[in-house]
Amino acid sequence: MTEHSPVSTNTAKAVPTLPDAQTVTAVTHWTDRLFSFRVTRPASLRFRSGEFVMIGLMGDPDPVTAKVRPLLRAYSIASPSWDEELEFYSIKVQDGPLTSRLQHIAPGDAIILRPKPVGTLVHDALLPGKRLWLFATGTGFAPFASLLRDPETYEKFEEVIVTHTCRDVAELEYSRQLIDNLLADEMLQELIGADHLAKLRYYPTTTREHSPRMGRITDLLADGTLLRDLGIEGITADTDRAMVCGSIGLNTDIKVILEGYGLEEGANSDPKHYVVEKAFVG
Ligand code: A2P
After folding, report:
1. How far is the CA of 218 from the centre of ligand 1 (A)?
2. How far apart are CA 241 and CA 263, in angstroms?
3. How far, CA to CA in Å, does 28 sit from each of 51, 104, 158, 281?
4. I want to staple 72 with a disulfide (CB 3.0 to 4.6 A). Which of 54, 141, 151, 264 is the partner?
5. DSSP per residue, 247-264
6. pLDDT tens digits for 27-44?
């Protein structure tokens, strides 16, 4: 239980208990728009890498009834399923109902976590293939932070390519450090396998600040730059599988491009060639 648990004496005034409370264990602020945090994991929570859960805080009291309700949003789990804690990667929206407050959490604080993981960015929603593309913008990288630390991702594919597009270089730092760790950390090398990690290729791009690779991933895909940079001849429904997570614009635009290559959208109940999930903000 957490510090918000009621004290079990008759004289003490009851402190309201958060439903489904978990305790924050670490917070990292990446930029003034982005932060990540880790929380305790409910012992019973099992999830598939790439899934999301509802998390949040108690809202303000209703001005009329004084009732407080939980304020919840969908968050992709960024940690892998073998991790004993849960990690989340979030935007800070200064006037967002939840993230305007969530950005101020600190270790020891409690958050609400509904332990019912769901989502389409899972291996079960894709048919077997040779090459896996993970296309992310902004905090859409979160589910891939989970999938990239899951050995199954490398067992299923010969090549794993993750692209991450952000406005500026500082916003790429979370994914850059995660990839660096995957390639350098001895524990991760042992757990996932050095031969598996050799399949991983990282393709970061920025759109509003100069960097070695610039442009929206949709443009770089459509004009052939991405494939040329990676030395890949083409994308086909026989060989390629894709997962997409980012802004609504990215999801809409990339769908058209992937379908142009003959890829069809899959679901848990009907696995196909690519799957899409929107990044969650607010
Ligand atoms: P851009 O700077 O050209 O808008 P945000 O921080 O707003 O969530 O955006 C994250 C990244 O996603 C930005 O680099 C942004 O590029 C890019 N982006 C926004 N819309 C699209 C789209 N329709 N297709 C591809 N990338 C997009």
Report:
1. 10
2. 8
3. 22, 11, 33, 18
4. 54
5. -HHHHHHHHHHHHHTT--
6. 999 999 999 999 999 989
Using a 10 angstrom Cβ sphere, with 0-12 exposed, 13-18 middle and 19 or more buried, the burial of residue 173 is: middle
* Residue 4 CA: distances (Å) to CA of 53, 139, 215: 21, 29, 46
Atom of ligand 1 nearest to the CA of 208: 2
pTM for the whole structure = 0.92
Classify 74 in phi/psi space as left (phi over 0), alpha (psi -120 to 50) or beta: beta
Q: Give the DSSP letter of residue 22.
A: E
3-state class (DSSP) for residue 43: coil
Residues forming a β-bridge with 136? 164, 245
Structure tokens at 247: 């802004």
According to DSSP, the residues that pair with 165 across neighbouring strands are 137, 205
Residue of the CA atom closest to atom 11 of ligand 1: 166
Question: Nearest to residue 190, comparing CAs of 154, 227, 151, 221?
Answer: 151
Q: How far is 93 from 220, CA to CA, in rounded Å?
A: 28
* Strand positions, DSSP E, the chain: 21-29, 34-40, 52-58, 70-76, 85-91, 110-118, 131-137, 159-166, 200-206, 240-246, 274-278
Q: Which residues line ligand 1 (CB under 6 A)?
A: 137-138, 165-167, 207-208, 216-218, 246-247, 249-250, 253
What CA–CA distance (Å, rounded) separates 48 from 216? 29
Report the 10 Å Cβ neighbour count for 110.
22
